[in-house]
């Protein structure tokens, strides 16, 4: 079976590929889920991308880490989180329609989660033998934020960063890291009707990255907090470009 479960560093992962036995991938794509989702939430992206672009099957390995925190005590069996959220505060903001400006916030637990995620990326890098320049960091919502934090802080740039429904956090920290790091391609998508992470936050993130000379392929769409078809298409195109696959 092309789907296996493995512990890499501190995190348990689902790994999906269709590589011939013994063949190493050209690109590893780490895809991180959002708050409240199970660790295998985004696993269907692997076979879907390879169905659309069969030539990628001999080039790509997808790795889907489960976030370290269980949400069982919050009444979400199977749900995971990279760090805890104040759900009551979030629900109140959604109900009031207020924009959640988190630019100056470093959420409690973010840096601890980033340390675990970085350990996981380092272990994957060592185990696979691939340089960071052949590892893509992609994520949805909270998973995109942990991916952004780590991508900006790697010792060498990743192959790319993919941000689905993310936002700008800890602006001073991220701006400082963005100024210093080597540049890499970034894809970003966000719904204009997102009640959870408002569209404005995505624009603030995009602007910060572009002001620091990153090329951001930004897709806005009329929709809520989700990953749209256009984002999946562009993700497949990005992987095709990175592998040199026709």
From TrEMBL:
Keyword Transport on this protein? no
Q: Pfam families per the record?
A: Abhydrolase_2
Ranges where the Phospholipase/carboxylesterase/thioesterase domain occurs = 29-234
What keywords would UniProt list here? Hydrolase
Keyword Ligase recorded: no
Record's superkingdom? Bacteria
The record's section on InterPro entries has:
AB_hydrolase_fold, LYPA1-2/EST-like, PLipase/COase/thioEstase
Molecular function (GO) terms for this protein are: hydrolase activity
Q: Which family does it belong to?
A: Belongs to the AB hydrolase superfamily. AB hydrolase 2 family.
- Stated name of the protein: Phospholipase/Carboxylesterase
Its source organism is Gimesia fumaroli
Q: What is the lineage of its organism?
A: Bacteria, Pseudomonadati, Planctomycetota, Planctomycetia, Planctomycetales
């Amino acid at each position: 079976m092309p789907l296996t479960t493995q512990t890499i560093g501190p995190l348990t992962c689902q790994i999906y590929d269709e590589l011939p036995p013994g063949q190493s991938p050209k690109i590893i794509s780490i895809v991180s889920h959002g708050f409240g989702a199970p660790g295998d939430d985004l696993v269907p992206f692997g076979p879907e991308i390879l169905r659309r672009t069969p030539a990628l099957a001999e080039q790509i390995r997808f790795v889907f880490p489960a976030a370290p925190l269980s949400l069982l005590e919050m009444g979400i069996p199977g749900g995971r989180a990279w760090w805890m959220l104040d759900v009551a505060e979030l629900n109140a903001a959604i109900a009031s329609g207020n924009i959640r400006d988190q630019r100056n916030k470093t959420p409690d637990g973010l840096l601890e989660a980033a340390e675990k995620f970085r350990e996981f990326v380092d272990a994957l890098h060592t185990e696979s033998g691939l340089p960071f320049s052949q590892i893509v960091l992609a994520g949805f919502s909270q998973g995109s934020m942990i991916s952004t934090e780590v991508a900006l802080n790697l010792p060498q740039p990743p192959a790319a960063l993919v941000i689905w429904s993310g936002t700008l956090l800890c602006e001073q920290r991220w701006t400082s890291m963005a100024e210093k790091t080597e540049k890499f391609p970034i894809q970003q998508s966000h719904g204009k009707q997102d009640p959870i992470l408002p569209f404005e936050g995505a624009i603030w993130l995009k602007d910060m990255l572009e002001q620091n000379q990153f090329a951001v392929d930004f897709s806005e769409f009329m929709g809520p907090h989700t990953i749209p078809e256009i984002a999946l298409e562009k993700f497949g195109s990005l992987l095709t470009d990175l592998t040199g696959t026709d």
